[in-house]
């Protein structure tokens, strides 16, 4: 659970800088475009993820913690993952 103070800090950042709308714009445009022509597939479907789908993929992990806001939910894990990703680019 996210602490009330952290949540209010995050909301205040967007409110006082008047950037809430611009930060949400990416979601609005992405979802609108992605689902504009969405039609369900009439056949059974499967999805596979291979460990190294792209030879340029330098760092890939599936974590046990975190969600849509990992920097708020598990900041230590988030920072460690950012650092690991940047180290892999060296």
TrEMBL record:
Belongs to the peptidase S33 family. The keyword Nucleus does not apply. The keyword Hydrolase applies. It comes from Mycolicibacterium hassiacum (strain DSM 44199 / CIP 105218 / JCM 12690 / 3849). Keywords: Hydrolase. PANTHER family: EPOXIDE HYDROLASE, EPOXIDE HYDROLASE 1-RELATED. This is Putative epoxide hydrolase-like protein. One of its GO terms (biological process) is epoxide metabolic process. One of its GO terms (molecular function) is epoxide hydrolase activity. InterPro entries: AB_hydrolase_fold.
């Amino acid at each position: 659970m996210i602490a009330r103070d952290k949540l209010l800090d995050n909301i205040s950042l967007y409110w006082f800088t008047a950037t809430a709308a611009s930060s949400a714009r990416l979601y609005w445009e992405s979802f609108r475009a992605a689902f504009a022509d969405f039609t369900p597939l009439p056949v059974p479907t499967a999805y596979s993820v291979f460990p190294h789908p792209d030879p340029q993929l330098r760092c890939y992990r599936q974590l046990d913690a975190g969600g849509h806001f990992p920097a708020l939910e598990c900041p230590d894990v988030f920072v460690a993952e950012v650092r690991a990703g940047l180290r892999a680019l060296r």
